[in-house]
Amino acid sequence: GYSFSFSGGQKTRPVSSRLIDPAIRQAWMEKQGIDRQIVGGWLDIFGYELPAEEGALWAQMMNQELLKATIDEKSKLTALACVPLQSGPLAAKVLHEAMDKGFPGVMIGTQPKGNGGNLDDPDLYPFWEAASERNAVIFIHPMYSCGDDRLLDYDLINAVGRGTDTTIAVSRLLFSGHITRYSGVKFVISHGGAALPFMLGRLERHHSLNAKTLSDPIEAFKKLYFDTVLFDPAALLFLMEKVGSDKVMMGSDFPFAIGDLEPANIISHLDLSEVDHGSILGKNAARIFNLSGCNCC
Questions:
Q1: What CATH number labels 17-288?
Q2: Model-wide pTM > 0.90
């Protein structure tokens, strides 16, 4: 398949036909009984490593194409925008433009420099302020490289790295106070929150030892939303016990091989009330992403 590279940069992984062919996606959605899907760009080509001005132009072009591909009601897709995280002021500008055009929010990677940087970096304050002002959904997804050479063997990037990358990035937002400070933002964490739900006791203990300098991670954690891409019904049930059924929504990671390509199955394995079942299958997403005209409502 095709690969992609910016001038002077490394090639991406081959681009899967399932990533770019809308007919394949539509057939999969129909088979799975999915009425609407939230989609974002491919993080491999978000361009965080570009110079800031180039990154902004690239993000604007991506958003234009995302909107073009999803604006038709027949598409059954709702897109999240891309922003140039390598510059907080420019990311804020592009976010405002995207929200004005009808995007419900943006999808961002965990490392704003492409392979480095942190989401709580001071340079990004303008972005977070803009996102809070606009009540934007911010969907946080790990980067592909994850920034750790120990993951290069055994395909640990997929098995472990994405989870550790997410856990570190979101932990910084919890302890820095970003989650509570930017209260207008609806934070959605991919892959069921990675290891975070299972580490809450340790995070709470760490805070108790450093309460004068760190924000309360438990209060902040309660404000987050999560997808169901955990593959283990017991793990999903544990997450729901920690955050409530109103904070969890069905996810798939389609079209990637490691995704949950029959996403309703894990939910059907849980002994849920009819209300909780309907909430996770669609009603929560419809509320969080402000969807209209969706059968899931």
A1: 3.20.20.140
A2: yes
